[in-house]
Each structure stands twice: as structure tokens, then as C-alpha cells.
Amino acid sequence: MSTLADTRLHSPNLLRHTPLATFLLIAFIAIPALASPYVIEAILLPFLALALAGVGLNLLTGYGGQVSLGSAAFMAVGAFAAYNIQLRLNLPLPLTILLSALTAATVGLIFGLPSLRLRGFYLAVSTLAAQFFVQWALTKFGWFSNYSPSGVISAPGMTLLGYSLDSTTARYLLALTLVTLLTLGVWAFTAGPLGNDLIAIRDNETAAQIIGVPVLKTKLVAFALSSAIIGVAGFLWAFTYLRTIEPAGFDLDRSFDVLFIIIIGGLATLRGAFLGAGLIVVFPLLLSRLSAMAFGGMIDSGVLELVQRIILGTLIIAFLIAEPNGLAAILTRVKRRFARNTL
Fold it and tell me: How many domains does the chain have?
């Protein structure tokens, strides 16, 4: 477990040591102009949605030390809330996204109440119950999916100020804008007083309480903010990437994917959410291409998925043993070594 000083160094790294302006210029200008629709649809859109979910979970688990296995449930709440708000109220898109985030925050706050009494494994089981309950409710009650016979619904079209956002480039820019704004917001939160309180609770809850940190309030704020951000990630996953909404798309496997992202990328570092999401998104595509080249597409997709899970599990064990701080720590060491060699 990193110390308070270590974690405070991680957050400013987002702006201090990364050429952020260059990355944003490439992301907002060069990629829409140069990237093919396949790259945007198959790689960048799922990457952005999962990276944002990783940012939300890292706020709760990495910075706050509150283990959660229900990320996909809050993604589902955000996606279905946005769908029903668009369908029944037909509100402007920014307001729809805001209300869907608030809905996810409310649900997260309800399931975060056990964190006031539970810790560690017991809290993880509590959030796992949220995962099963939300998926059951969305399947059981047809109102959420507008009584679709299959339970699978198409995401409604998106417009902003009269302009359609249904093209590949428009959906990418919408996702990139939301991810950028929310990530910078989380950075500001973790660098501020509430973020320091959250880190203090993670490092030693008893000591934090003694020095006057409002433990109960800070925990609930963390659950609400984390769930809201993950809810927006669910909106991006359904509306910009899949273009369909169904409870099965937000199952337990999706929750584990988000958890793997922050473990592999690095806990308590925003950069790690993006590194981990990149690995989670690119690795299956790379494995599929390699198997096609080596075996001519003769391997069943189910076998490929099993191999993917085995390799990811091995990577997680390797990171936990060799580098508990994940890809972000490895990248930092490489940059420092490169800087020393260039002096």
C-alpha cells in the first residue's frame, strides 16, 4: 500500500510529467482526421469507455481502499437511465448524461452504505450483491427495456444543438470530451482536501478518524462520485460503442474487466486506468489476429476467450508479485531511466 505522499505524487503526474496538451491535440484533431472507422469503432470507443470506468473504480478502490466488484452494475444503471430519460422525457443530451450519472450515483450511494460498517472481503461481497441485484432487476422488469421481447434495445440517436452525433467521428469526439473532462475532475478531486481525506482513510481509517477526518461522509462521497463516473462510462459503452443496451452486456465479467484494468494499470494513479484499458481492449484483438495467422482461424472463439482469461489472470498474478503498482510504475521507471541516459 502506497503512502499518502506517494499517492499525491501519482495524481499530479497526469499533468506534470505527461505532455497532456500534445496528447489532447492528437486525440481531438489528428485521430479523427487520420484514423479509420474500424480503429475508432473497435479500439478507441471501447478503450475510452473502459478507461473512464477504470478512473471511477480507481477513485473508490485505489485512492479510497474500498473494494468493489459491482462496476458493471453501475455501468448498466447509467446506460438504462440514459435510455429511459431519452425515451420518456426527450431531454437535451447533456442533461440526459447528467441525470443518468446522478441516477448511478444514487444507486451507488445506496449500495455504498454497507461500507460504513464493512471492509475488505465483506465489502466486496456487498458490492457483488449489487451486481446481481441490478442485473436481475433490469431483466425481471420489462419497463426498463420498454418491454422489448428480447430485452435487447437499440440506443436512441444522439443530437446536440440540432446536430446528429451518430457518425463514428461524432461519437468518438463525444466520448473523448466526456472522458477528458471527468478525468480532469477526478484529478482535481484527488489533489484537493476531500481527496486527501480519502487517502488518509485508505491508509489508516482509525488514525484518520482521530485527526478529524469525516470518515462516513468521505466514504459515501467516494461511492457516489465513483458510481456517477462509472455510470457515464456505461452510457458511453452503450450509446457510442455497442449502440445497443441489454443487461447481459453488463455482467460480472465486465466488472472483473474494470477491476483488472486498475490492477494491471496501477492503483491510485489515473494514468494506470488508461494503460490498463489499452491492454484489456487491444489484447483480445491481438490474440485473435495471431491465432488467425498461426492457425488460419481454426480455433473456436470460445477457446480464444478462455486463453485470453488465462493469460490475463497470469498477468495479474505477475503484476501483484513483481510490480504491485502496475504498468504506471513501470512506465515511470522507464521514463526516469531514459531521462538519466539522455543527460
Answer: 1
